[in-house]
Amino acid sequence: VIEAAEMGGLAEFVNRHPHGFDMLIGERGESISGGQRQGVAIARAVVNEPELLLADEPTGNLDPDLAVEIMRLFREINARGTTVVVATHDRDLIRRMQRRTIVLEHGRVVQEGTPAEVARRPATEYVARLVGLNLYTGTADGARVVLDGGGSFVVPDHDERGEVLVALRPSAVVVSTSAPVVSSVRNTWPATITGL
After folding, report:
1. Which residues pair with 166 in a beta bridge?
2. Best CA proximity match to 173, nearest among 160, 187, 161, 183
3. Residue 140: what are its φ and ψ, rounded to 5°?
4. Which long-range contacts (CB under 8 A, 24 or more apart) does 45-50 make?
5. pLDDT in tens, 114-146
6. What's the half-sphere exposure (Cβ side, CA atoms, 13 Å) at 28?
7. CA pair distance 173, 6, nearest whole angstrom
């Protein structure tokens, strides 16, 4: 129990409390912080040294610093021999963990790899949104891609043919009231902005 409390990040908190492990924490842990509740949940989950620990959105309601600490605990639990599976939609968490990533869509595996591999070549529009990209479908003819929804892209240093997906970081888009004079811009579209 003491080792599980340490793994849950609770040892110092328990040792400082006058009642130690006998303290009352209230219904659903209402007298302790969100991070401490997560720590209790982790300690309860690992006390019997399971082979597998499934964590569903374990950092969902935590501040960023506490989320990092919880994920550090999961790495430690994993290093001790427990397989840890984390289900999350938090792309920052996925990117920070740098572990094997399996993306499920409608109950099916659509992509797997490191976060960098998944982000570099998103297999579906859902995966693209998950990693913060816009994904366009189209047909490539060398370096030019004609988009299914109209318009086209020039993709330098590529010689693809047939149906392709083009991933674009939103930060790579520039809105301007005039055509660029001197720039590395290869793709421009006239448009009317109707709202932001």
Report:
1. 136
2. 187
3. -95, 140
4. 46/4, 46/7, 46/8, 46/77, 46/82, 47/1, 47/4, 49/80, 49/81, 49/82, 50/82
5. 988 988 888 888 888 888 888 888 899 888 888
6. 2
7. 47
Higher pLDDT, 68 or 181: 68
Q: Which residue carries 């995966």 as its tokens? A: 127
Distances (CA, A) of 11 to 18, 21, 34, 43, 185: 13, 10, 16, 10, 56
The CA-atom distances, in angstroms, between 55 and each of 59, 164, 178 are: 9, 35, 50
What percent of the chain has pLDDT above 90? Answer: 9
Is the model more confident about 107 or about 39?
107
Please give the full DSSP string across 135-155, using - where no structure is assigned: EEEEEEEETEEEETTS-EEE-
Q: What is the pLDDT of residues 8-41, one digit of tens each?
A: 566 677 777 777 776 767 677 676 776 677 777 7
Q: Write down the number of H helices and E strands in the chain.
A: 7, 8
> DSSP alpha helices (H): ranges in the chain?
2-7, 11-16, 34-46, 64-79, 91-97, 115-120, 125-130
